[in-house]
Amino acid sequence: MATTQIPYTNLVPNGSLAQPAGTTTVAAPANNMQISNAFPELTLLRVVNTGAEQDITIKAGAHPPALAAGQGDLVVTVAATTGVQFIGPFESGRFVQSDGSMLIEAETTGATIAALRVPRNT
Questions:
Q1: Most exposed residue of 4, 39, 59, 100, measured as fewest CB within 10 angstroms of its CB?
Q2: Residue 6 domain-assigned?
Q3: Residue-wise pLDDT tens digits, 80-105
């Protein structure tokens, strides 16, 4: 099964950001998407759906480290041609995989997903 990487787009503290392009689902559902070295609590997904209504699934993590993985996947239905929908932030205790990534699946093609990373206050 092919896995498409979704790179982070860092939000800018006290600033602005141009609309990121995102990663288009190509051959879903056989094409899973992954955010490597994920920061679930700082992650917001922007989903643009130009096709039919579909489910976007955030896969439950591996236990350990995801102690709450038993709660299962998060499935969000995105209406047909909605424009933009945001999903997240997430709990690492539920969604982080054993390799530190997050896995996302799309039900059909037609969605473009961008992973936005919220900056921490330092």
A1: 100
A2: no
A3: 887 789 999 999 999 999 999 999 99
